[in-house]
Amino acid sequence: AKPNADIIGRSKKIWERLRRKSHVPNDERKALVAELFDIITGRVRDFVFKHDSVRVIQCALKYANMQQRKQIVTELRADMRELAESKYGKFLVAKMVVEGDAEIRNMVVPQFYGHVRRLINHPEAAWIVDDIYRQVATSSQKALMLREWYGAEFAIFGKTKAAQGQTDDKVTADLKTILDESPEKKKPVMNYLQQLINQLVQKKMTGFTMLHDAMLQYFLNTTPGTPEAAEFLELLKSDLDEENGGDLLKNLAFTKNGSRVVCLALGYGTAKDRKLILRVYKDAVEMMALDPNAHTVLLAAMDTVDDTKMTAKALFPELLGENIKDEAERENRLVDLISHLTARI
Prior knowledge:
Helix content is about 70%, strand content about 0%. The chain has 23 helices and no strands. The longest helix has 17 residues, at about 185-200. It is globular and about 70 Å long. One of its GO terms (cellular component) is nucleolus. Keywords: Repeat.
């Protein structure tokens, strides 16, 4: 017989009753949750690395009170990274930070300190680590995670903070500030950062907010006209020749710091660079005009591109709806854009 088969079987029967689509009365649900916790307490780890039984713990998190959720998180605290790397366990980590309060999130997030570089390259863990960074981490937690892109010593710093249970509100991920304090670190830090950025770009893992933030820090600390600045611009254009290419530039445009990267590229690139970059956004101009981040790329394009005819050809037909044959529909669409708080700019 499989170990724990009996308790897993009992818990799954309770799970089936809890997840019924028809309404489960509140008192009955509380009784079922209490019964479920009687079974899983002290054994949570036995459930979470199996694709069927991990759903039981997800259900327990959903219907538990906050104290019961903390009980689950406490039992799994040392397993967070392994769960994040698991095909099914990563969804449980997501459930913990979504259903949990600030105390629970402060238990979960530090478990990733010191391991960000490895996990952001992992096919399963990368998405949950970036979701935590983007959606639930505090500003100081985000800074500690992003600093790990700058070198091994920053990962050790994060591990130390986690071990001590400290949250330092003064910690910064602003690379200029760090390099101003230690200018001798510029070359190794920039090399380390460039290698990690390049790894993710080559793997086509370009949708991560953390990557976009790291790219902005790198670009802001290069000097225009230098080989490293030129190399970075080439990296931005690296997938343009491939079929359905341009994913990196498309993803960058729709995040706060990613859009700044594209604006800087338009400003510092050559006329040819600007033409290639704008070509990527063909058929996405209306969507960009409506987006609070991407619309800044359109503004930068109008401000920097030398060939006004090319700019007009690339941007205005889609904005003005020239491909819409019905005149009334075209006018309504234009009115919608003019009325939109972002697009009208």
